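hey can u check if this looks right to u? its 161 residues, i copy pasted from the old doc so theres a chance i mangled smth
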Amino acid sequence: MVLWIPTLSKAESFKAIYISGTPFINMPWSSDGFGALDFTLLDHHHGMIEDWRALIDELHRRGMYVIMDNTLGTMGDLLEWVGSENVSAPFRWGEYDVRYKSSRHYNDFTYGNALNATCNYPRMWGEDGYPLRNQSALDGMNLPCRDSEFDQVCVPLHCSR
């Protein structure tokens, strides 16, 4: 992976390299890095850990930054929303029950379908750039969420409504 850096004739004129997607294990048809299956393993299509370390060390040696998109919000297609299998689930404030589509599971987290009445959603902003004032939307955020690692947690200083 590091081999291409010396071939950039103007590499020193760049201040940063932006790497899009995630370098972790992806679904076979998702080599762009937007279908991660395991956030603990590098996908060897993107190099080995030694390659990444050498690349980042070389870029830092040249005074450059490495900006990683690290897209954790787009994962592989292992889960399905109960009641909306094989179709897009319509938006609603109340969460859907979820289950795995097959015996293949994510190794990085667990989910739960039990209701958690004490969850906090993050502060939402309207299109006008101000905190959301739509009362029906705010009421929707008072619904219980699922008790899982996807539970929204607010830092007290940044989560007042």
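The beta strands are 16-19, 24-26, 36-42, 65-68, 79-81, 98-100, 115-116, 145-146.
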